[in-house]
Amino acid sequence: MHLIALQKIDTETQKVLQSRKDLPLRLARLDTDFAAVREALEEERNRLEAKNQTHRELEEALKKGMEQLRKTRDRIHEVKSNKEYQAVLKEIETLEQKHGIVEDKIITILEEIDTMKTSLAIREGEFQASGRRYEEEREKLEKRIGSIESQLQERQRQGESMREKIPKNVLKRYDMTKNVNQGLAVVSAWKETCDGCHMSIPPQLYNELLEDTEELIMCPNCRRIIYWYDQNKESV
Fold first, then answer.
1. Residues near 44 by beta carbon (within 8 Å), at least 6 away in sequence
2. Distance in angstroms (rounded) separating the CA atoms of residues 153 and 159
């Protein structure tokens, strides 16, 4: 039956049309998702750089503190009274406490930097692998997008050729049925069940299908054009 072949062609055409709509969206999502991965990695790099900058500032503060402490210790030899001596000792004690706090901060931040470097190294490796997958998937999508128009033209050519073999009154019925059934006008039937709506077909009507008549037979439930198809062939 030419209608069966036309339905298959039209179904494939609809799939190609849907792909023409969906593939650019998939490509855009792919780009967006990978950009988000790249951005997350860049943020992690920035956090590590900020931590390194803090470490450099602490090292500079420690260096200045040590210089100030050295100068203060040198002053102890210049004092001329016990009161001045006690004041310098107090200043030295304060500076040493500050020195110790800065050293503790440096130790803590170095540990944090080591942890962040380890995490970043892992993330860098994951990003490289993700980048390879991204490039591969993007190339596939671009190739599919590039072939869409030629596929669509071929399906349309096949459809036009098949329609020329079908009587106009039959085509009119086919088109009307297709328009009210989401593009599906012709469906198979098996074991007294319509594969379009999955409802039972009256036995007498089903027997007419088995006779392989050229007359159009409609499903009484969904009003699609039905034909008998032996599904046992699919399991052979």
1. 116, 119, 120, 123
2. 10
9-46 per-position pLDDT tens digit: 999 999 999 999 999 999 999 999 999 999 999 999 99
Neighbours of 194 (CB within 10 A): 21
The answer to whether the predicted template modeling score (pTM) of the entire model surpasses 0.90 is: no
Per DSSP, what are the bridge partners of residue 98?
none
Q: Which of the 8 DSSP states describes residue 200?
A: B
> Are 24 and 44 members of one domain?
yes
Question: Where does a domain end: 108, 139, 163?
Answer: 163
State whether 221 and 121 are in the same domain: no
Beta bridge partners of 160: none
The number of beta carbons lying within 10 Å of the beta carbon of residue 163 is 16
Residue 76 and residue 92 share a domain: yes
Whether residues 134 and 198 fall in one domain: no
Q: Which domain holds residue 141?
A: 2-163
Please state the domain count of the chain: 2
The DSSP call for residue 164 is T
Tens digit of pLDDT for each residue in 99-125?
Answer: 999 999 999 999 999 999 999 999 999
